[in-house]
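User: I'm new to structure prediction. If I give you an amino acid sequence, what do you actually give back? Let's try with this one:
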Amino acid sequence: MDPARIGPFQILEKIGSGGMGNVYLGQQDESGRLVAVKVLSASLARESGFVDRFNREIDAMRKLKNPHIVELFESGVEGENYYYAMEYVAGETLMALIRREKRIPWRQAFEIAIQVCQALKAAHDMGIIHRDLKPSNLLVGPDGIIKLTDFGVAQVFASNRLTATGGIIGTAEFMSPEQAQGKRAGKPSDLYSLGAVLYAMITGRTPFVGSTAVEVIQKHKFGVFDRPKMYVPDLPTRVDETICRLLEKDPDKRFPDSLVLLRHLEQTIRLEDFADVAQTQDDIINTEDGAATIALADRAKAAHSSHPGPATLMQTLMRAELAEGPQGILSALFNNVYVLVLLLALVILGGFWWIRPHRQTAADRRQMFETGAAILEQSPGPEWLRARSEYFEPLLAADPDTWREPLAPLLEKIKLYESMRPVRSKHGLSQSDPKSEPERLLQLALHYRQIGDAARAEQILTALDAILADDPSRTHLHELTAQLLAETRKQLAAGEDRDQLLNEALARARKLTAEGHVDKARQILTGIVDLYADDASAAEFVKQAREALERSQ
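Assistant: Good question. You get back a string of structure tokens that encode the predicted 3D arrangement of the chain. For your 553 residues, that looks like this:
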């Protein structure tokens, strides 16, 4: 039952809930100010680990003062209720915005990310890593102001503890690879999560999806995501590359900190805006007093229209640049035709030297083949396309007679994978037309895997594997079927093992409760909630655990 009052606050309504407790809209008695009151549930308040985490969140928020971080007003304990009151944001979560809009234009997404960067900089400057950055922890106010909240799993740089339990903390879909491996999170970890949030805003999906949290975590550690440009073809290359850099597995390859990222996002918006204007306008107005000046590119265009030679063209460009500045030795040099001809010759020679072909040896080509073939030993994914473009196609171009035959089955596998890749359109998820009946069945099996029915996918793949086993004309199809079947069986085994574990845990908790060992039972139940609260496929187990916790109060 929801409380009528908490401390000095009258509770008006429940506005949210999560694994730690509930959030209510409250009104302060004296000032009448509306606040959001977060209350640790009574059952979890009996567990020291949850109380410690709740207090860490309060301590983190107390240190932070920033327009893009929800402000803490006060905290306290009333009976068994641990609570704190914070700034109330009368808007919605970023998750709600994404679900409503499906996809957010990249400029709007970057503006949101810039505000998040300001919040992260404030936290990082105070020695605090958020560790659970995700759309549901970002509040969007009616004025478009973004507020970061929920520091429940934040860590302080000086702390020697990785997590409350020494395991993995965070939300699977937005978790950095180092967190997925149980390593200590740092500033780049929050930036990876922000990259996943940007990916979700712009594409309408997370970088990695799976039927269980464990599967998603494994993909963060080892998987390769589809570039955002695959889902938004008109996405500018700069934007696509920014998100991909944020999602690098190696933290050192991401942006060094939130301030550098903030400046990069601002610069990207400016560059793209300039590119858009340059495509539609011939004249750029540069002067503050309103006088029109011709852009440097237009000067070059005007110079070129009279068919000048290379030296004259370069001279015209440099004169246009130097015309507005003081004249000196540099200006005199660049006004000299012979100097410019020499410079142009050096540039051309340097260009030829830079692009000169590298002579490949037979060993080089063999290494290329083996590298590409090794990639195709992995699960089907975008890396297969990279193997084709970086290894197989250059081999065919360099020596088709030698490599056409050994590459044929590998290229056929890639072609089949490509034909079965999901294609996003305004009408939803679709599949390319299958070229044969086995391809149609493979597509059907993949469809069932994507919607979470791994059992039906296994049934189709098992039957198809048997049909193709002795068909020499479809060897590559049989190999791919066997590979997908093995992956599907691993997926089923992981799900069955988890379900068995949770069923046994719930049964043990019921037995302990019946025997009077309520505290031990609650420890099991809170463990289920803590570990699987964010796993949609385990929602029924979490629900049973929470109901049992409420009954045991």
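You can read the tokens as a compact description of the fold. Here is one thing that stands out. The chain has four domains: 5-87, 92-276, 285-348, 420-553.
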